[in-house]
Amino acid sequence: MPDLSKPHVARIVDYWLGGSHHYSVDRKIAKAAEEELPSLPDFQRVHRAFLKRAYAYLVLAVGLDKFVDFGSGLPTQGNVHEIVLEFDPSAKVIYSDHDLEVVEYGQEIVGVTHPEQVRYVFCEAAHPEEVLESEMIKSFFGGERRVGIGFTNLPHLMSDEDVRSAFETLYEWAAPGSHMVVSFGTDAIRQYPRILEIEERHGMERWWRSLDEMLSLLGSWQLTEHGVTYTRSWPKHSVPEDPLLLMSLGFLVRK
């Protein structure tokens, strides 16, 4: 039985995306946040659209067919495996999360829908070696290390030290030609102190960064020619009209 004593970010996102994997404790905080920012559900849908464009590029333009995703949350409502399998039915995806409840639920979901091509495992995003050094990834990917990596809607949940260390570990493991999809919540959210108050009250620790602060953590990863854009417009460079969408930046990096 899931822990219903406090809200869970994965279930809150599922609620905003129109899914069914959420509870009253999640809906309560989601609705409280919506009172301050009514377009929060649209924000999540915009991010899913960003994922579709980014992963379509990795499959169709870069030619990747193996993907490992960190901080995955619940694999529902247009997530990575649905996107890449649409463009390449032979693609393989490994999801991971640090929350055992989410992992168990995720395993149940993908075990029913895509048992041959999708895996869901436990991993702390700050320690990606837990997946990268496993026998599972070696056998599932056939030893292939030229992969697509997902690190989306995740950096603002991690300290600078943890993000920097994770990016370094991923770079050292990945083969040349590998790409990583990154998105993060920016410090623009500080103009909404009520949201910050809600997060603090519910023990939801966040590290909101400027673009320069985020880029300083990339290490050896190189930005692709698309540069950094708002997730609403990637790969184009345009400024969203909705102020909420100014809080989400996305980009691709490559080795």
Architecture overview:
There is one protein chain. The protein has helices at residues 9-16, 24-36, 40-62, 80-87, 100-113, 129-132, 135-140, 160-173, 193-201, 211-215; strands at residues 66-69, 92-97, 118-122, 148-151, 179-185, 222-223, 229-230, 248-254. It has 255 residues and is of the alpha/beta class. It has one domain: Rossmann fold (3-Layer(aba) Sandwich), CATH 3.40.50.150. Helix 4 (80-87) links the parallel strand 1 and strand 2 (92-97). Helix 3 (40-62) packs parallel to helix 4 (80-87). The mean pLDDT is 91.
Main features:
Rossmann fold, 10 helices, 255 residues, globular, alpha/beta
Q: Would you list the SSEs in sequence order as H and E?
A: HHHEHEHEHHEHEHHEEE
Taken as a percent bin, the fraction of beta residues is: 5-15%
The CATH architecture name reads: 3-Layer(aba) Sandwich
Point out poorly predicted stretches: none
Kindly report how far apart the N and C termini lie. 41 Å
Structural class: alpha/beta
Provide mean pLDDT, rounded.
91
Classify the helix fraction into a percent range. Answer: 40-55%
CATH class descriptor: Alpha Beta
Rg over alpha carbons: 17 Å
Number of helices in the DSSP assignment: 10
Give the tally of β-strands. Answer: 8
Gross morphology: globular
CATH topology: Rossmann fold
Layout of strands and helices, then pairs:
Layout: H1 9-16, H2 24-36, H3 40-62, E1 66-69, H4 80-87, E2 92-97, H5 100-113, E3 118-122, H6 129-132, H7 135-140, E4 148-151, H8 160-173, E5 179-185, H9 193-201, H10 211-215, E6 222-223, E7 229-230, E8 248-254
Parallel strand pairs: 1-2, 1-4, 2-3, 4-5
Antiparallel strand pairs: 5-8, 6-8, 7-8
